[in-house]
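Ticket reopened. Same input as before:
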Amino acid sequence: MKPLASILGAVIAAPLGWIAGLAEAPLRLWQRLTGKGGMIAFFLLPNMAIFGVFVLFPLIINIVYSTTSGSALFLSDRDFVGLGQYERLLRCDDYTNTLTCQEDQFWTAVKNTAVFVVVQVGLLISIATATALILNREIMGRSFWRAMFFFPVLLSPVVVGLIWRWILDRNGALNAALVGVGLDPVNWLLERGWAFAATIGITIWAHLGFYALILLAGLQAIPRDLYEAAEMDGTPPGRVFWRITLPLLMPNLLVVIVLSLIRAVQVFDEAYVLTGGGPGTATLYLTQYIYEVGFASLLKNPGLASAASILMGGVLIVLTLVQLGLSNRNEKKGKQK
Amino acid sequence: MKKTVTAFTLGLSLLASTAMAGDVRMMWYSDGVEGEVMKDLLARFHAQNPDINVILDEVAYKVVQEQLQIQLEAGSGPDIARVTNIKTLAPHWLNLTPYLSDPDYWRTNFGAYADWMREDGSDAITGFMTQLTLTGGFANKTLFEQAGVAMPGAGATWDDWVNASAEVAKSQGTAAAFAIDRSGHRISGPNASYGANYIAADGMPAPMDAGSKAFAEKLVGWVADGKMLKDTWVAASGSTYRAAADDFINAAIPFYYSGSWQIANLSSKIGTGFDWVAIGSPCGTVACSGLAGGAALVAVKYTKNPEDVAKVMEFLGSEEIVKEFSERTLFLPAHAGVVTKGGLKWDTKDPNVGAALDKFVSAATEVAPAAAALPSWKWASAYYGALVNRISQVMAGELTLDDAYTKIDSDIAEQVAAAK
Amino acid sequence: MTRAWAFLSRRRAGSNWDWTDIVTFVWLGAGLFIVFGPALWLVLSSLKSPAQLSEFPPTLMPYEARSVIVAGYENPLPLYKVTDDAGTRTLAEVRRVGTVAQMVDPADPGTIQKINIANRTPERDIGFSWSNYTDPFLKFDFLNYTKNSVFVTTMATLITLLTNSMAAFALSKYEFRGRGFVIVLIVATLMIPLSVILVPLYSIISGVGLINSLWGVILPTVATPTGVFLLRQYMLTIPYELLEAARMDHASEWQIYWRIVLPLTAPALAVLAIFSVVWRWNDFLWPLIVLSRQEVYTLQVGLNAYAGELNVQWHYLLAMTVMTMVPVVLVFIFLQRFITAGIAGSGLK
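Engineering reply: fixed in the latest deploy. New output:
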């Protein structure tokens, strides 16, 4: 295993090294001519140019889009309506009843997404922590188990959705098993509660391994002697967990919380393939709403979709900045110690 | 220096090859075997016209529905496409008239459906229907016989059919009595049977009328009392399409309302599992109407070589090719000559198929005028989408029927306003 | 068997059985079932015939009808087990009319027996519909799709690694005006999902003429903020003194990046590489939008062509899904220790 990988690495690295060597002379000249500033520009430019054209620029256009109306795709063919699209999204006659909102399905999607985020992240983190704790024990074949939980992370979201639809369908494997043991089949994707739970379940199934590994890395960094000292003092295991494990796991836990939070807000592919937003609108999430309004329906409304996506993007940026703030505070705290 | 020159010429030749004359790109989706039949026909065309190279891009139906419009707006896209949303996209189609050797052949044989695929008021020839479809029901004859329930005869209403099927379902223990595909198109024929008319006097969408409401109320009631299979309509949101064909194939429902395009699918998947018959459309209060539709093969305005495109279209639209295509795909032909001459030899051994196709041909005469106007009406998709979206919310218990009616009207009004 | 039990029942050395051991075994056992069960089910389903796929209750294994050639009949006839008043026997079906099947005993082809279809069950053997796998290769250009997928995955990964690591190097090892701004910009866009910028991105790609080009798929994905973020976090841990020492020895900035920083970032690069490969291989929505010509299809897009308007060809869809999973499973088997060790050791600490 190891030698094979190192041979492979060498075979790939050798020509790359050769190319890098070729770049050496011109770059040295460039450095002499332009100094450090030129080199910084050289290192940053390729990435930032692509980033600018294909990420930043579309985002800016998106803001412009959100102030226009019409079904035309190209900005020049669209009419300026100012904040009209935002008004349409946000206007309700009675804010306690989403049915009275002009875009009632937008509000349904917001509500569904909010509940999904809270429940899914809570469950995901508890299960990932439990899995990491178990993987951290001295069990036989640990690398196998570790890898096993990681396997679904490698599957494409579409495949994940398809596999589970195949299982949870009225005529699927799960119902066949229920009938087999003499129970009544359940229409998993038709009962509001079950369908909602199913979207939560399969997203946890698909992402668990990734977060469990990050947490496992944190657990392994906790010094053994802390536990040994606790054992000497006869501290009960529950107390050890709350007093030693959890505080020391905090930095990793924070990363996991924020990453999973952001991914939960964006939930789309797996859920879309699994339930298509149904039953009714019980699993209609925000990204699906945006996708359908702006892209998938026969009469598209890109302006409305852009406005919705900018509201969602705003929430995501706030979440990210909160993460930055928290991790900075953590870092500072770490330094003070 | 030499390297740059080589690279440059290489780049040029690449550019040149992508816009080579004689290339005709056709975007095509398949429900069954028609992609293979088309490939075969195109190979024959290439043998006769070696200088024209037709490239068949087989895509998912979703691509045609979602991406094609964007490509067309960008002034790109294929040269020929198989499309169902032909009216909405009509401004992008090419008028083939100046390139056709015999435009009158097209007017006589495909003229009946020409309005479906051109802008209002235009007399362009933009393409032809690869198949004509008609919505209609299928019944599981074997289940009816086993239950000892007589199949409702001619003139039977929706209630007759649903109640008879419910009896069968009860006696045979099937999942439900019947199902309708989740699609606004599918319920619009029945709506018209109850007197619905979507089109106001000025050609714009009319508000939900008593006819549409009557059938919507029936649908919701049938889901509530378990007669209509819940899965198809409730298990999705928005205007997502869902078919219930698998449940019929599985004998989970004795009665299934879909359309003529299912025949090949039913035949190949049911095999000898049970006997099934096409029953046309049950009656409402004013008619026993289905809804016509189909997929058209149209030429795109942005093509670089319209002459070649016209040659391909002439080949595929010729009488013997249309006949062969229909026979092999089990699709109803839309070619007046082929239809009047008749005598199609369906490429199947299944005795259920011929009878079913004949039934659809005769049912076509019963289409109500309000339904017949829909395929060439610009706002039909907006209406269909709103109907499906909101009625399924009522079925899921999220809205009351009255809320749904209001929402359907405002959804359509918004769509109309947004599209201006 | 005993060895397997010994393997399963091994516990933490020295300590006694306690509830945590039980929880561990239950957890891992359930995990094994929940993780691999669905995948196995998919593989078995992909080998079933279309008719069998729409059957309920579904069987675990794929079956095909057993048939027999009976004298006097052209085609092989399907066999059924019949149980009625006359006892249990195996008959071949000639035809079926309504609820009555006309059947013959293969040993006595002359006499037709009329049997109620409720009294017969088909005789079937385990049989695999390999045609679900072979047909798409004959009818569709799957080799070409694979080639395109490999091209996209390789190029995107190489460019991602190079540009992201260069940017991360500049952002972690140099002080300059506007650095904070660039970092905030990258972090802020870290989490923008593709569906949000779908429409404007499409108009840009079409504006630069990259529709139906594999580069139109590659370029928007390579400047991933995630990669820059990950690599920068890792590079921050490389001591500054190392770079200063190299500068003393007159190494150019390029050499510092290439010979010192990159090798030290290897674990994080490995993680990014693996993720990039998996992401690009699995990419679906964006390629589907950009690519509409058969010769530039990637595997995921080609796969999608099996979904028609009215009928999804499940048997092909499932088989090809399994095919596209194969490389991912190979990555998983051969590189799993690098993945797991890489994530554990990367900047995600």
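The first strand of chain A starts at residue 68 and ends at 69. Chain A touches chain C through 103 residues (CB under 8 Å). Please confirm and we'll close it.
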